[in-house]
Amino acid sequence: MNNVLAAFIFLTRLPFWKIKEVPADCFKHVVPYWPLVGWLTGGIMAGVLWLAGQVFPISLAWMLAIVSRLLVTGCLHEDGLADFLDGFGGGRTRERTLAIMKDSHIGSYGVIGLIIYFGLLWQLSDLPLNLLCTLVICGDCWSKCCASHIINCLPYARKEEESKAKVVYNRMTVSELIVNLVCGALPFCLLLPVSIWPALLAPVLAFLFLYRLMKRRLQGYTGDCCGAVFLICELAFYIGCEAVINF
Predict the structure, then answer these.
(1) Global model pTM greater than 0.85
(2) Per-residue pLDDT tens for 157-192?
(3) Per residue in 91-126, pLDDT tens?
(4) What does residue 221 show for φ and ψ, rounded to 5 degrees?
(5) CA distances from 162 to 111, 157, 212, 215, 240 (A)
(6) 44, CA 20 to 30 Å: which among 10, 54, 158, 171?
(7) Do the beta carbons of residue 210 and residue 228 sit within 8 Å?
């Protein structure tokens, strides 16, 4: 349970730390439980979307839902995406890419990338409210599941003491892998119409592309890479859903 609690403490700004003090070593085991945290962050996002959709146009409700997750997570993933884009956009070598990603200042690649990301995310506001609520929960959990496997495929690219969070994740055990897959797959098995299931392949393809990119440039991953992989996988899921629905 300590590892699960550590995952909620690490990935959200909610006061889970008040429940009990978690040993520092537990934060090395939070990745398998990313999809479980997605039940909360995606659920809050869907709840805000549905409630706001009863009063406001879907476009405004969708904006409030996006803001709600930004507040709950403290923009953790978006910060990672911006640093990732700055590093891979401005760096040409492994050392230079890692140095740029560690810089706390945002650059032009990060700014433009976030504008494009939120612009694409905004396009989902044309979907029916109930379907969008379902996609939000399934997309959060499944994309976190896909992104979490970066720690199983690549080593950490820096030394542990150079990590921003001062922690390096351990690879998943068999039991953790099972929990990870169940938590990621259960929402879409229960909620997502079977006709949209082909869109689940989009985050997998996005993950494979990013894995090859990081392996070639960094020979590993960083914390910023984790946040970027999640958001890009999630965006790929939404784009895949739009494609399946329109087709």
Answers:
(1) yes
(2) 887 655 655 678 889 999 999 999 999 999 999 999
(3) 889 999 999 998 888 899 999 999 999 999 999 999
(4) -130, 165
(5) 25, 10, 23, 19, 36
(6) 171
(7) yes
Q: Which of 131, 166, 142 is nearest to 237 (CA)?
A: 142
Q: Is 37 exposed, middle or buried (0-12, 13-18, 19+ CB in 10 A)?
A: buried
Q: Which residues of the chain have pLDDT under 50?
A: none
Three-class HEC string of 17-70: HHCCCCCHHHHHHCHHHHHHHHHHHHHHHHHHHHHHHCCCCHHHHHHHHHHHHH
Rounded Cα–Cα distance for residues 149 and 142 (Å) = 12
**Amino acid present at 125:** S
